[in-house]
Amino acid sequence: MAEPNPRRSARPRIVVVFYSATGNVAALAEALGEGARGEGAEVRVRPVVERAPAEAIEGNRRWKEWVENNPYETTASLDDLEWADGIALGSPTRFGGAAEQLKAFLDTTGGLWAQGKLASKVGTSFTSASTEHGGLETTIAAMNNVYYHWGTLIMPLGYAADPSLMSSGNPYGASWVSKKSSAPDDDALVAARVQGARLAQVAAKIAD
């Protein structure tokens, strides 16, 4: 007879790990976390450490404002990944891939990977770009490549999760095109909430 799973019926654990330069990806991360909480999940929303040189940040007003005023006191850690049943990764596009800041954090996960501690969790990804064809899908796919190596089960946003996604969503994951430095609109935030809710639902089943 199988041993009972001590986590059975417990709330699913979701961690949202992201990099944001101006706050747009952070807004999507918070909406995703909100959607997961709506499904009863325990949620941690964690930015990764900023690694860009000061002179680069100084040259961009919105980047500088975010670095100086962002509200996060706790940054992402390996413990957050091990704790979670479901993981969401978020980053602005950088030439069709994730930002170096997020990649640097992910490059520290080798120990957890070697121990199999990231396998059989559920993963999903989201992004933002400044242009309509600036690499939204390729950035999400690039982040998902990490899940393949971890053995994490990949959960796309899809279109079936909510009717509104047929007109406003990206089936790869929540995304936002920030024209003229605009913040995510209601459609983008709804897509992120739907993604978070779906991640919590699937993670709960996997944790059981």
Concise description?
With 208 residues, the chain is α/β, with parallel strands linked by helices. It contains 9 helices and 6 strands.
Quote the beta fraction: 15-25%
Helices and strands, in order, run as: EHEHHHEHHEHEHEH
Biggest sheet details: 6 strands, parallel
Total helices: the number is 9
- How far from one another are the termini? 16 Å
> Would you state the CATH class?
Alpha Beta
State the secondary-structure class.
alpha/beta
Mind telling me the C-alpha Rg?
16 Å
CATH-level-4 superfamily name: Flavodoxin domain
Oligomer: single chain
CATH fold node name: Rossmann fold
Number of strands: 6
The CATH architecture designation is: 3-Layer(aba) Sandwich
- Could you estimate the helical fraction of the residues in percent? 40-55%
Q: pLDDT below 50 for ≥5 consecutive residues: which ranges?
A: none
Describe the protein's topology.
Layout: E1 13-18, H1 24-38, E2 42-47, H2 54-58, H3 61-69, H4 78-83, E3 86-92, H5 100-106, H6 110-114, E4 122-129, H7 136-150, E5 153-154, H8 165-168, E6 175-177, H9 186-207
Parallel strand pairs: 1-2, 1-3, 3-4, 4-5, 4-6
Structural notes for this entry:
The protein is of the alpha/beta class and 208 residues long. It has one domain: 3-Layer(aba) Sandwich (Rossmann fold), CATH 3.40.50. 42% of the residues lie in helices and 15% in strands. The chain is built from nine helices and six strands, in the order E-H-E-H-H-H-E-H-H-E-H-E-H-E-H. Strands 1, 2, 3, 4, 5 and 6 form a six-stranded parallel sheet that branches. Helix 7 (136-150) links the parallel strand 4 (122-129) and strand 5. It is globular. It starts with 12 loop residues before the first strand and ends with a helix. The mean pLDDT is 92.
